[in-house]
Amino acid sequence: DEEPQDAAIVLHERAHEIPERVAVRAFVQHDGRILRLLVRVPLEAMRDVDFPLRDDGSLDLVRVRALLPEAAQLWISNSISITADGRALDAPRITGMRVALPNDRAFDGFEGARTSFRRPPLDSVRIQWQQTLFDVALEYALPVTDAQLVLHPDFAHLGIRTSSVLRIVAGDGSERTLTYTGNPASVALDPRWYQTSAQFLTVGFRHILGGIDHLLFVFCLVLPLRKWQSLVTIVTAFTLAHSLTLGGAALGFAPTALWFPPLVETLIAASIVWLTIENIVLPEERLAARWPIAFGFGLIHGFGFSFALGETLQFAGGNLLSALAAFNVGVEIGQLVVLLVALPLLWLARRYAGAGRERLITIAGSVLVAHTAWHWMTDRAAALAEHRGSLAWPALDASLALVAMRVVLLGAVALAVALAMRQILRIPRRS
Questions:
Q1: What are 137-196's pLDDT values in tens digits?
Q2: How far is 70 from 73, CA to CA, in rounded Å?
Q3: Cα separations (Å) of 319 from 147, 176, 191, 306?
Q4: H-run or E-run covering 187
Q5: Partners of 42 in the beta sheet?
Q6: Which site from 84, 139, 267, 430 is most exposed, i.e. has the minimal number of CB atoms within 10 Å?
Q7: What is the rounded radius of gyration, in angstroms, for the C-alpha atoms of the chain?
């Protein structure tokens, strides 16, 4: 018998809307022969699906089950590809589908999520379709036992803003949790050190080329320099310093308070303004010996680099040191590329200006940079001021003592590096 038309309302318009926020939760686990992928998404992310409703507006859980296989294939299975040693695996087999309530806790752990697909379906529950969750279990056949497995997820299109929590389950039951927004380029389940190095070398190179504030800082450092010895000394000081704080931040030696990133960004802009003022008012012989300034500000810039590396570092797996080293190398290669372009142009500009007027090139360039950096500094200072309410004296407890010890240790290492560099360069102390 057919149900009355008003007992199966079809939401054509709402079915095609893109949800504002979508949260994806997933587990991936393999035993060398089969890779299992368990995915949970909101049912409303399954667009182009007409959800049948009961006469009270709740989701008809019996009739909706006929639509789940197509939704699982179109929106879940087709939204992820997996490669083994660089070759794409065959399409997965859908081994389970279920509709879950918003308070369902099955995906708190891998075993709970895996066994949840054996539960009886929810047929009599009354729930709105926008509140329902959709769980899908996929299995991929693996051609090689020890193949290098890489996931290429493409779930960002499920919502306007899609955030994912992917938990990689190892053979011994341990888990590695990845949290990201949008689509990562790739996720290696057990990356080798050379894979991690290649990935983070590229990340570092791209970051420095897109980090205009860092590049302008380096540009202001080298703008007044005419001797290669001074150039190498100052750039080396900057490199050592930002490598030190970048590594320290990655190892947990940086504050985690919300005000810290805007503070660092403000100080980075202020460092550029400082250099432009020095370039304008100080004589060139003083500018050629300011490696301590480059070192000090480099410590701040290193924290800035760590913000870009923060979310990406989780994809390094157990290769943290390889990732840090490769990221640094990528940054230095990017700086070198920019210098190889900028320095010949500066040389041509000074030659065109003629003898006695080379100083004008430094002043003009510094004024142009100072105008941009000043606006950055004021805008970032305004953003920092919004965190005044979160500033408070920390409690005198063990956690504060641990933070203090880390800061002192990082400062001691930075001082030791600076003194060692001073000794190597044999630069006398200025009074």
A1: 999 999 877 888 999 999 999 999 999 999 999 877 788 899 989 988 888 888 888 888
A2: 5
A3: 18, 13, 8, 16
A4: strand 187-188
A5: 133
A6: 430
A7: 28
